[in-house]
Specification:
Elements (H helix, E strand, L loop, with lengths): L23 E6 L4 H16 L3 E6 L4 H13 L6 E5 L5 H5 L7 H6 L2 H4 L4 H5 L1 E2 L2 E2 L1 E3 L7 E5 H7 L7 H13 L3 E3 L5 H16 L1 H8 L4 H4 L2 H16 L8 H9 L3 E6 L3 H7 L8 E5 L7 E2 L3 E4 L6 H15 L1 H11 L15 H12 L2 E2 L2 H4 L2 H15 L5 H13 L3
């Protein structure tokens, strides 16, 4: 088992030798919130310091908006130098079509198989034994973020788990607070449901449904209870009239909302706002009921370019993204966990340390992107939008969800 040492801090600066004339690479991604922008700036700074030039291609609106644009450019003959995708199957068809650069030589030269942890991250980059992407972080979506101010205003203790949060909702509403902040981006509803699945049904049920593909369990009583719990929880979010995830996070930061189910990237927003983990806000991985992480996150793929200099720069950037210095600088700003287990993160805040401890324990599951196709993911995303934003019957939603899963078998 690989462990994370938390004894001393590494410098966040990157010092790599100059390579002569700078080669420009356009890099597309969907990191546009305050915390995300601060993190991606670390990647750009490191690439520029090494002698090349990062041309930022941020696309607002999140991955659901950005991915179709990225894919269209690559398939349409207008590829960028590098592009973000999530770990999993999002870029599989592009790889199979021969449109992505093979990074196996970079991975072998830098011993990625020995340092990338958990191994499933590199497995997600591997097609037919060849490596096509550079993983940069681990993001787990199953966190409950709580406003200490909102609970102080309501005169009640900060919850320690999801069940206590549910019980606290009436007091929050009586104090004029929104119990649950939830934005209108489609993926947010799907994320909230996924987090509740483990919190309500447990890890074993999640694995049986998503890893073993047991449709009897998917249609069973444990998952029916999750849909009923989600139907109850959607009432808590009824007055959360914001669009973007970071706007929902700001409702928690400002004390207008009691909590938010969101990935650990929310830490970046709390940091930009100057808030301190454990003092101004509380974080509960696994919604405080199951201390685990799903190994989702982000990776960069490098579309094939008809330019030898640019291809060399692509490989330099791929190696740089996995380097120890960049892993520290980037992930401290992003709020995510590093993809290598041999670096110090003494500067991590209390919430990141919780994640590091779980990661070191090995209590991990794959992300939805790693176990279901993009088609199944999109079907369930659409279903969750309808379910969370209406009075859709939980039984009907459950039945449709099972049919969506079956379509991916």
């Amino acid at each position: 088992m690989k462990t994370f040492k938390l004894a001393t801090a590494l410098a966040a600066s990157v010092a790599l030798p100059s390579i002569g004339l700078a080669t420009e690479l356009e890099v597309t991604h969907w990191w546009t919130s305050g915390g995300e922008a601060a993190a991606v700036a670390e990647l750009a700074k490191a690439f520029d310091a090494a002698g090349d030039k990062w041309i930022d291609g941020a696309i607002a609106g999140g991955g659901g908006t950005a991915r179709p644009i990225m894919i269209s450019r690559i398939t349409g003959g207008d590829p960028m130098g590098a592009t973000q995708f999530n770990h999993g199957q999002q870029a599989l068809e592009l790889v199979e079509a021969g449109l992505m650069l093979d990074l196996t030589d970079v991975a072998e030269a830098n011993n990625w198989k020995d340092i990338v942890y958990p191994p499933s991250l590199l497995d997600s980059c591997t097609v037919d034994g060849r490596i096509y992407c550079a993983p940069v972080n681990i993001h787990s979506p199953e966190w409950l973020w709580l406003s200490n101010k909102a609970y102080a205003d309501a005169g009640i203790p900060v919850p320690t788990n999801w069940n206590e949060f549910v019980a606290s909702a009436p007091a929050l509403e009586a104090a004029g607070k929104i119990p649950l902040a939830l934005g209108n981006q489609p993926w947010q509803s799907n994320l909230a449901f996924g987090a509740m699945t483990v919190a309500v049904a447990g890890l074993d049920v999640w694995k049986q449904v998503n890893v073993e593909k047991n449709m009897d369990v998917a249609a069973g009583a444990e998952m029916a209870a999750v849909f009923q719990a989600a139907a109850d929880a959607r009432k808590f979010a009824a007055k959360s009239n914001v669009q973007d995830w970071n706007q929902a996070t700001n409702l928690v930061i400002s004390g207008q909302a009691g909590g938010q189910i969101m990935g650990d990237w929310a830490q970046g927003e709390f940091q930009v706002a100057g808030q301190v983990a454990g003092t101004d806000y509380t974080c509960l991985p696994g919604l405080g009921l199951n201390a685990y992480l799903s190994t989702g996150g982000d990776a960069f793929y490098f579309p094939k370019l008809q330019d030898a200099d640019k291809e060399a720069a692509q490989k330099r950037l791929a190696a740089l993204m996995v380097s120890p210095e960049v892993q520290v600088a980037f992930n401290l700003k992003k709020g995510s966990l590093p993809i290598r287990g041999d670096i110090d993160l003494a500067a991590a805040n209390d919430c990141m340390k919780k994640g590091l401890e779980i990661l070191a324990s090995g209590n991990l599951v794959p992300s939805g992107d790693q176990v279901w196709s993009p088609d199944v993911q999109k079907q369930n995303e659409d279903l969750m939008v309808e379910f969370w934003k209406s009075d859709m019957d939980p039984g009907a939603a459950h039945a449709q969800w099972v049919e969506n899963l079956k379509s991916g078998l």
